[in-house]
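User: Structure please.
Assistant: Input sequence and predicted structure:
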Amino acid sequence: MQSEDRPVPADSSNADVPAGQPKAGSDARRAFLTRMMASGFALAVQPVMADVIHTSSEGLDSGPTSIALPNDNGEALPAYYAKPMHAAKPLPVVIVVQEIFGVHEHIQDVCRRLARLGYFAVAPELYFRQGDPRQYPSVPELVEKIVSKVPDAQVMSDLDTTVQWALDNGGDRSRLAITGFCWGGRITWLYTAHNPLLKAATAWYGPLVGPVNAITPRYPVDIAGQLKAPVLGLYGGQDPNIKQEHVAQMRDALAAVHSNSQIIVYPDAGHGFNADYRPSYNEAAAKDGWQHMLDWFRKYGVAPN
């Protein structure tokens, strides 16, 4: 499968185009989508650590793509995918959900890491209607301008579209998993309560409790009894944002419904411990968490042949 970069038809009106997106025709829109999915790191995470992990794309079918959305206005969902080249059989699928920084280089690299193990990994850019997360120079500005305006309902729908695209392009319907980081960790819990096709999920340091509103009406602690597949939660004991009392609340909620889901806490790790491009990286916790994720997928039937 070659990268599918479908041009988006020009709109007759620009009235509903969100801030940060081009108010022009298909050429400008195509350029916007291409820029969002280019390699490189978001401005808000600069400077990047010198020893950042880079996984080669050699031998992989990988790159940016755009996924047609089921509406009438010509929207396309930007995404990055990676899978083994010349795969003869349907492949197990892992949907990779971004950090708050979008599908920048680290998330793309996670996709390539999974592809090298035999998975078909796809990471959709779930903020694209609100703007380009790569272009904001600070986390507070990024949260205010984009992240806080992304509705959970929109995300669930876009993930449904991503799953269907993966299944239509060589993915195995019977072997579907999801993983996500930070912002995407919370989404991983929520999507596992949403999609009955999922067989397994791994959430990396995603918020478990928090204030609800029309944009984010529920948190993982609220949907423990609705999970359609077992979730492995990976958390840091030194995370200042996701406190250990929140982890305890989630464990209690899971225990109350006799869930097979589990939570592992790394006592010496903080938030973002798998982010090898940031000072938060904790190599021991990251490697152990990665192996636990792979074992979890295998345990619940989502593993390469």
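The radius of gyration is 18 Å.
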